[in-house]
Write a structure and sequence with these properties.
- By secondary structure, the protein is mainly alpha-helical.
- Helices cover about 70% and strands about 0% of the residues.
- The protein has one domain: Orthogonal Bundle (Tetracycline Repressor, domain 2), CATH 1.10.357.
- Helix 1 packs across helix 6.
- This is TetR/AcrR family transcriptional regulator.
Length: about 200
C-alpha cells in the first residue's frame, strides 16, 4: 500500500472510530459529518473519499460500535475468574459504564434505531444480541445458564443501564444499577448451588 493509500486508510479508520464513539454516546441521528470530520482533523470535503453517504458512515460506525462490545464483555467476565458472571454484571452495571456512554455498550443506544426496523442497524444489532447471549450462557463452566436465563440477564443489563442513564434522580439511577445487579447475581447458576 502506498504512502497516500496508507494515510487514506488511517484517516478513514479515525473517522469511523470517532463516529462509533458518537453513535454510542448520542445514537444514530445526531452525529453530523462536519463535526465528525473536524474532530478527525479532516475537512468536510474529504468525507466522500471515505464514505458514500452519511448513512454509509453511520451504518459502519454502528456495526463497529456493536462489535467492539464483545471484547469488553469478555474482559469484564475475566475480572472475576472465580465468578465470571458476577464480574460481567458488576462491570456492566457499574457507574463507570453508566457515566461513559461513548465507550459503553452500543446495545443500549442503538436499540431504538434497530427497533424502528432500519436494516442497517437491525442485522448487526441482532448479531450482537446473539453473541452476548452465547457469551452469557457459557460463563459458568459447572452449569451453563439456560438460553432463557441468558435472555433475562442480557435484557436486565441493557434495560438497567438505559433507565439509569435516562432518569433525572441520581439516587434512583444508582438504585437501578445496584438492585438489578444484586437480583441478577442471586439468580445466577451458582446462587442455587449448595454451600461446600
Amino acid at each position: 500500500m502506498g504512502h497516500s493509500q496508507a494515510e487514506k486508510a488511517a484517516s478513514r479508520e479515525r473517522v469511523l472510530r470517532i463516529a462509533a464513539r458518537k453513535v454510542r454516546a448520542e445514537g444514530v441521528t445526531r452525529p453530523g459529518i462536519t463535526d465528525l470530520m473536524k474532530e478527525a482533523g479532516l475537512t468536510h470535503g474529504g468525507f466522500y473519499k471515505h464514505f458514500t453517504s452519511r448513512e454509509d458512515l453511520i451504518s459502519q460506525a454502528a456495526s463497529l460500535a456493536l462489535a467492539e462490545g464483545t471484547a469488553k464483555m469478555e474482559r469484564a467476565a475475566r475480572r472475576n475468574e472465580q465468578e465470571p458472571r458476577t464480574g460481567l454484571i458488576d462491570a456492566y452495571l457499574g457507574q463507570q459504564h453508566r457515566d461513559s456512554p461513548a465507550t459503553g455498550c452500543a446495545l443500549v443506544t442503538l436499540g431504538a434505531a434497530a427497533g424502528r426496523g432500519d436494516e442497517h442497524f437491525k442485522e448487526p444489532y441482532e448479531h450482537q444480541v446473539r453473541t452476548y447471549l452465547d457469551l452469557i450462557a457459557g460463563l459458568d463452566e459447572d452449569s451453563e445458564e439456560t438460553r432463557a436465563e441468558a435472555m433475562l440477564t442480557l435484557s436486565a443489563l441493557v434495560g438497567a443501564v438505559l433507565m439509569s442513564r435516562a432518569v433525572a434522580d441520581a439516587g434512583l439511577s444508582d438504585e437501578l444499577l445496584t438492585n438489578v445487579a444484586e437480583q441478577l447475581k442471586q439468580r445466577g447458576p451458582r446462587a442455587s448451588a449448595p454451600a461446600a
